[in-house]
Amino acid sequence: MTAPSKTIRSDIAWSTSDEIVVRGKSLPNEILGHLNLGDMAFLQLTGRVPTAPESAVFNALLITLVEHGITPSAIAARMTYAGAPESLQAAVAAGLCGLGTVFVGSMEGASRMLYDALPQDALPQDAGEADLDAIARDLVQRYRAEKRILPGFGHPIHKPIDPRTPRLFAIAEENGMAGRYVTLIQKIHAEAETAAGKPLTLNATGALGALCCEFGFPWKIVRGFGVMARAIGLVGHILEESERPMALNIWHQIEDEASRHARPA
Amino acid sequence: MTAPSKTIRSDIAWSTSDEIVVRGKSLPNEILGHLNLGDMAFLQLTGRVPTAPESAVFNALLITLVEHGITPSAIAARMTYAGAPESLQAAVAAGLCGLGTVFVGSMEGASRMLYDALPQDALPQDAGEADLDAIARDLVQRYRAEKRILPGFGHPIHKPIDPRTPRLFAIAEENGMAGRYVTLIQKIHAEAETAAGKPLTLNATGALGALCCEFGFPWKIVRGFGVMARAIGLVGHILEESERPMALNIWHQIEDEASRHARPA
Amino acid sequence: MTAPSKTIRSDIAWSTSDEIVVRGKSLPNEILGHLNLGDMAFLQLTGRVPTAPESAVFNALLITLVEHGITPSAIAARMTYAGAPESLQAAVAAGLCGLGTVFVGSMEGASRMLYDALPQDALPQDAGEADLDAIARDLVQRYRAEKRILPGFGHPIHKPIDPRTPRLFAIAEENGMAGRYVTLIQKIHAEAETAAGKPLTLNATGALGALCCEFGFPWKIVRGFGVMARAIGLVGHILEESERPMALNIWHQIEDEASRHARPA
Amino acid sequence: MTAPSKTIRSDIAWSTSDEIVVRGKSLPNEILGHLNLGDMAFLQLTGRVPTAPESAVFNALLITLVEHGITPSAIAARMTYAGAPESLQAAVAAGLCGLGTVFVGSMEGASRMLYDALPQDALPQDAGEADLDAIARDLVQRYRAEKRILPGFGHPIHKPIDPRTPRLFAIAEENGMAGRYVTLIQKIHAEAETAAGKPLTLNATGALGALCCEFGFPWKIVRGFGVMARAIGLVGHILEESERPMALNIWHQIEDEASRHARPA
């Protein structure tokens, strides 16, 4: 438990009768009409407006996380909406509750792994290829020796390439943001494939975890990008559920299957 | 309870080993690097990419809802994070659960009121001023006669003008989206002030509710815009809470105050 | 929005270094070892220990609501646990979020209907059969005329009798708590069947709603009994899910079915 | 991620038109009127009805966790209710979301520590005092050497004795359930005090963690007892909030304090 501060204070926003200020900027005059939603998320988290390259990469990062089809999260949200259609917000909340270690956790894990291997102030920003090669080799050997899973690698469907990964790296490259963390995870990828003797997918959460390191976001907040993006996606699922419901069908189908063994013949 | 469909089917997204399609568009090739996060939300909900004017107005609409300071929602999220810092997603979920009828509900209520008074196909798009005047007058008289509150009006702090309202209308105007629903709520505003004999704030939720009608969004999904935007804002609060915590201080202060009367002197 | 009180004050519990008091009773000395969990719930809500008959009926009321099989609520909880097994509490929370108007709402609705038809102070406690007959007849006629559904009636499986209903009424009878609200809902049942000309199930939520009125609980809190009981049931589902998981199987099965139409052949 | 089973199957409950079976027992005929709510929770989790001594201890265990005053969890629930009073279930859910590692986690941690030190099948049930002395001494030395906190020890208010702890142990003793795990945590307590050279509170979560081990519950489900019990407590808080609200007062007080530094003088 972090020691509490002495005071109750927030620096995010304040307002008076005729002004609303978020992160030091006038919401009506300096934010509305000037930023897009991804930029606003960046401002909310960092306290500053992103540069154009940062805006391009950060918007792509968040967009990647919006929609993943009929996931456990989407099913939970739809089930909840079926029982409480008057509480759309609770359906989204239920869907978000499952964004934990199993799914979104690998993005967080990739960022943490990269920061652990290469702390932000550990090497000069122009660390040479040789340095990064050594770090990647050591890391892969250590994970293999400890039989640990590399976060951000592997995918049940997208084999051998997750189509989001090269696209995210290309966007980072175009915007001058494919720095040493992107290079490092690519070297880890190569080392891991060599060590395994077969192709291994560097998945989107691995690529996104590396981008989060390029921005310098603390790994503890990385999961939050998945949470905010998926909130958007889940509202889309609830809208579809309200127009073409599937939740009650799922319920009846699963309940029947789950209790079939117990019912009298 | 809506009658369930015969099938379990979603048209939002699907994927194969080398492709991910969201709303009919290739995520890697047609979405990433092409859209901003607000556009992606629009695509997720409507199935199409917004036009440039739609993008400007829709991004402004969502951004307005991201951050409102230390609200009950932010306090709930921070309290939850203090108890379960390992579950950032659950803290955001807890904060979203309170976005119900009392706060976010007025935006939904404004949209519903406007659609009830002026159904989308009720008048030609170029309905004359006289038509809208009559609708506004009737509506205000009816609400007053029934002692109902006009959703989207009044504000405890922003008096007599909510600074977001004129800005949102200006952005709509610049983008050719200040149509008959914006005009109608402005006329309702004027009628209500005349009837009350004093200034009355047309607040941001009223303005946003009118913009939702301009887009033609079903009123039942309007609350969802508040939910998705606030999810972004709450991640910001949790990041600040992780760096400068206030939750435990709030707890101790409130617990002490709440039980002071009961403790032995 | 209820007007806020002037003070921040709670009368539920307080503690000192060597004492913990809940609802005026010493937790260590007067509660632990003296009450069962249902009695504790009664004490927490009413501020007093139930009598033996009240304890019998109230425990039965809550127990009825603990477990309903593989419901949407249980599916949502299991889906959430699959994604965040480290946050058992968030899985239960997700499952509870759907206990809204569609499912648990009918118990609340039954209580509200009975209170509306027969306010607590409207008739002497020994109101005659004739009075209750008239109230039941009027109510059924009015609901039919307004084409409203009678809350607490009908069931997709338990036809013509919900086996919980006669048992709950028998327990109430044995404990002297089958008063005028139980009689009234039974008369409504008879009137509704006569009017419909066919059998109609008086379901468990109808019986429970009547029992809540016998206790005099405000209808606004009736849903809370479903929430607290189901929390117990959901922990059971999560324990089973941890030992014999079904969530990922459900996911794969539903996702495949939902997107089959979209995948290339 | 646990490997999914091949089938979708639950053994908790099933029903036919005239029967409802929970954990192999007829809900109407064998459960209602026969069990109290704590017994029902035991049945739901273990698949069997508790013996009378088990019932006494298990009910006490759960009751201890129902109510802890104006906690962060209660504040989150009240804040949520203030925004969405129509969704009582979402307010309870929000309050539960924070029952994570910081608060409820110590009960789970105590169980886990005890099982790690003394696996269920490691010693004969009548393991001698000398065996348990050695285990306790080793454990305290190891935790001190590794500078780890002993879960279940220490309390900010209840010093030097948490009044729940001796009462819970007495109830276990009276019911023949104060076995080797209770003895072990008491020996750990004594060793820890000797090592520290000062009194150290064995708090309620430590005592409850030991009782969970006496029952043989897997440590992964221990947190669930806190979750189910607190759901009851939170409904009580929401009832009080509906009758004498404090949430909006807390909001205004905290918002004012948090943003005071930023407002123009």
Report on this structure:
Chains A, B, C, D: Pfam families: Citrate_synt. Chains A, B, C, D: Pathway: Carbohydrate metabolism; tricarboxylic acid cycle; isocitrate from oxaloacetate: step 1/2. Chains A, B, C, D: Keywords: Transferase. The structure is a homotetramer of 265-residue chains. Chain A is mainly alpha-helical and 265 residues long. Among the domains of chain A are: 11-50, no CATH class; 105-219, Cytochrome p450-Terp, domain 2, CATH 1.10.230. The first copy, chain A, contains 12 helices and 3 strands. In chain A, strands 1-2-3 form a 3-stranded antiparallel beta sheet. The N and C termini of chain A lie far apart (55 Å). Chains in contact: A-B, A-C, A-D, B-C, B-D, C-D.
Summarize the structure.
By secondary structure, chain A is mainly alpha-helical.
List the helices and strands and how they pair.
The structure is a homotetramer of 265-residue chains.
Chain A: E1 13-16, E2 19-22, E3 25-26, H1 27-31, H2 37-46, H3 52-64, H4 72-83, H5 88-96, H6 105-117, H7 129-145, H8 164-174, H9 180-196, H10 204-215, H11 219-243, H12 247-259
Antiparallel strand pairs in A: 1-2, 2-3
Helix pairs in contact in A: 2-3, 3-8, 3-10, 3-11, 4-5, 4-11, 5-11, 6-10, 6-11, 7-9, 8-10, 9-10
Pathway (chains A, B, C, D): Carbohydrate metabolism; tricarboxylic acid cycle; isocitrate from oxaloacetate: step 1/2
Keywords (chains A, B, C, D): Transferase
Protein name (chains A, B, C, D): citrate synthase (unknown stereospecificity)
